[in-house]
Amino acid sequence: MPAASPTVLHLLPDSALPCFIVPGAFTAADCDELLTPAIKASLHSAATHYPTYYRNNERSIVDSAALAERLLRVIRPVLPPELPADSPGTGPWRLKALNSRLRFCRYAAGQYFHRHLDGVYHQSATVQSRLTFMVYLNDAAEFGGGRTLFYRSKDDPAVWAEYWPAKGDLIVFDHRLWHEGEELTAGQKYVLRSDILYETAPVAPAPAAAFTPGHLGYVWQVLPFADSILSAGRDTIIKVWSAAGKLRQELAGHRNSVLSLCQLNADTLLSGSRDATIRVWERRGGQFQPARVLTPHAATVLAVRRLTDTTFVSAAADHLIKVSDVDGTLLRVLAGHTDWVWQVAPVAEGQLVSASEDGTLRLWDWRRGECQCIIAQGLAPVHALLFDPATRRLLTGNYAGEIQVWEPTAESGAWQPGATIAAHRGIVRTLTLLPGGRLASGGEDNKVKVWHLATGRLEQEMDHDDFVQSTAWLPEPQQLISAAYDGRLRLWDVGA
Predict the structure, then answer these.
(1) Is 129 within 8 Å of 195 (Cβ atoms)?
(2) Fewest CB within a 10 Å sphere: which of 34, 165, 270, 289?
(3) For 36-62, how does the pLDDT look when each residue is reduced to its tens digit (9 = 90+)?
(4) Last residue of a domain, one of 171, 199, 227
């Protein structure tokens, strides 16, 4: 790969954020050397880690510091050596390295990567990815569709800029730019993607604030547990906090994002991860200790819920629901969904409801391992699911930003749609019951909202700096806690 004297084509000249093409940054021979037959043979569906509403292409991951260094030598002359500070009192970001995790991707007809922001990779508190690096490994003449599209915002329908791939071209852009890999109509498209890392100076610690430091990257789940509050995130860490927000303990062991937490009994914690494992933690002397690792699923574990003091149900990206004993014994496999199972909720003795990316809600007899009925189908996929034992209502939050109230019918174990609340711009990711007939929701519009359920009236609205992923009610001190993609946990006074 020869050193280049490259030209740079700026795609978004009216944006303060970097977004540029380097035509011919890599030669055709370079691309062929990168895209070997072995790499092509290793490409596999990303469906175990990404939902189909988001992306459905194939990929292969290669970890190579040596290759990353070679690629960086070629492109370093065109990269910004420094990026501005994020806020007053912090230092600028200085170019450091190319992430050694390299992702080869293939798109075939019907495959896409819908509008999204690229996630930040946190190597440490001071080293993180800021820019996306992507090399087009073949020409647009070899496929139909497949443009790289940019948008001004999550919701703006107008294309801000577009680029037709050419073999060997490099595209570099800020992670904060909304973009899309357009669906292919024919042929195959290949790219190599990584991240450009920058480093900043450590910030002098501020006076201790509640729930600081938060997580590096997304916080996926927050869970009250006895006198503690637990949070879990993309940094693979589970943090144990006091009710006042003082860090007590950090639990390490997962190799990927921790997506779900569950209190099984007074002293047992379960955690489900993108690494396809469920870990069991036992509390002894006020500290959590690792007990065992369970592997009931072959894909991302999306939800873990208590059934009894010794049994739990898990839902995963393998389209399956499984009932297990805490010792790892598999008791039941509930099969029937045809896509990711986002949530499960116990609703009665021996019964549970599930919500899937396939657009259905199902009722199961988990003791018999049978689907009793499909409650509804053809729905906008449900990502948040809640059962209210006092009213026997189901509450769902969906991809379209709606909260749907499902009323119990006279027929035991059945529900019918009731009121619908247009709640958020973007997916409703979390629902939590509050005292006084109220409901808290969080969504992809970065909002936490409090609703009066009987009237559907919005009572309160609060902001995070990124998608709100999880909420929970804290009876003491009677506050709502929320967790978001911004890495923060926040407490809110919402009345009792």
Answers:
(1) yes
(2) 289
(3) 999 999 999 998 889 988 999 999 999
(4) 199
- Note the pLDDT of residue 205: 67
Q: What is the distance in angstroms between the CA of the first residue and the CA of the last residue of the chain?
A: 64
Average pLDDT of the segment spanning 225-241: 97
C-beta separation of 220 from 230 below 8 A? no
Query: Are 460 and 209 contacting, i.e. CB atoms less than 8 angstroms apart?
Result: no
Q: Domain with 347 in it: what CATH number? A: 2.130.10.10
What's the pLDDT tens digit per position in 403-441? 999 999 876 568 999 999 999 999 999 999 999 999 999
- In 3D space, the residue among 357, 377, 482, 363 whose CA is nearest the CA of residue 431 turns out to be 482
Exposed, middle or buried by CB within 10 Å (0-12, 13-18, 19+), for 206?
exposed
For residues 269 and 321, give the distance between their C-alpha atoms in angstroms, rounded to a whole number.
Answer: 19
The residue written with tokens 């036992």 in the block is 282
Find tokens 């997962």 and name the residue.
Answer: 254
Q: How far apart are CA 400 and CA 427, in angstroms?
A: 6
Angle at alpha carbon of residue 490, lines to 486 and 492, rounded to 5°: 140
| Shared domain check, 366 and 458 | yes
Judged against a pLDDT cut of 50, whether residue 3 lies above it is answered with no
CA distances from 76 to 6, 13, 34, 168 (A): 10, 21, 19, 16
Query: Which residues are 451's β-sheet partners?
Result: 439, 458
In 3-state terms, what secondary structure has residue 151?
strand
Whole-number Cα distances in Å, 359 to 52, 322, 337, 375, 376? 12, 20, 9, 11, 8
Average pLDDT, the chain: 95
Pairing of β 19-22 and β 170-174 = antiparallel
Domain residues for 245? Answer: 219-492
72 and 175 in a common domain: yes
Residue with tokens 């009066």: 452
Domain stop point among 199, 227, 242? 199
Residue 14: count other Cβ atoms within 10 Å of its Cβ. Answer: 8
Percent of the chain surpassing pLDDT 90: 92
Contact 237, 276 (CB under 8 A): no
Rounded to whole angstroms, the Cα distance separating 335 from 358 reads 13
Contacts of 481 (CB under 8 A, 6+ apart): 222, 224, 229, 471, 472, 473, 474, 489, 490, 491, 492
User: Residue 71 in 3-state DSSP?
Assistant: helix
Q: Is the same domain home to 109 and 223?
A: no
Q: Tens digits of per-residue pLDDT, 298-357?
A: 999 999 999 999 999 999 999 999 999 999 999 999 999 999 999 999 999 999 999 999
Same domain, 312 and 425: yes
